[in-house]
Sequence to fold (234 residues):
Amino acid sequence: MQKIYETADEALSGLLFDGMTIMAGGFGLCGIPENLIAGVHRAGTKDLTVISNNCGVDGFGLGILLDAKQIKKMISSYVGENKEFERQYLEGELDLEFNPQGTLAERIRAGGAGIPGFYVKTGVGTLIAEGKEHKEFAGEIYIMETGLTADVAIIKAWKSDTEGNLIFRKTARNFNPMMATAGKVTLVEVEEIVEAGALDPDHIHTPGIFVQRIIKGDFEKRIEQRTIRERETA
Fold:
C-alpha cells in the first residue's frame, strides 16, 4: 500500500465532506499539522466538528478555518488564545463542547482503543457534569465520559518511515499519538521520511498500521506567546 503523497491536497483528496468530524493534533501551536490544516482550508469543507486541544490563534493553525467560518463545533480543552473564537462563541456562531484537558486526552485514547465510555472524578459538581451519568465507586461520585473518534485525524510527527511508523518530539507527543489511533483515516505530515527499517523499533511511538497517508511538510512553527528578556550587559 502506497502511503506517501506529494502534497496535502493530494493526501486529503476523496476524504473531505461537509459536516464531517476532524481530529487535529498539537498542543498550542506545537506539533500542529500546519500543511493539512491549510489543505482543509483550500478545500472549503464546511460545517466541521473539530476535536483539538485548542483552536490555534487568530490567523494561524486552526484559526484559519475559524476565520473562514468552516468550523461549526469545537471539542476542546483550551480556547484562550483566539479572539475570533471568543467572538463567534459569544455571538452563537460556534458550538463548544468544553473538556478538562486530561479528560479530552483520555476520551481520544478511549475512542482509539474501542472503549465507548469510562468514569472520571474530574468535573463532578461543575457545569462539565451537567446531563452526564453519575455513578458511585467506593464511596466517591464519578461522571461518565464517552470515547471520541473522527472521520479523519490529521497529525504531525517528526519522522516517519515509508510504512508510516512515527516518531514524535517532545510536546508534540501530547495529543498526536492518541489521535493517530482514533481516526477512521489518519493523515500525518512529517519533517523527514526515511526508508522502512531505518528507524530503531524501540524509538517508534506510533506503529504504521494506524497511518494511511503521509506527506513531508514545510513548517513555520510559530510561537504563541513569544517572551524574551534583554541580554544582560557586562
Summary: The first helix runs from residue 8 to 12. The CA atoms of residues 183 and 194 lie 24 Å apart.
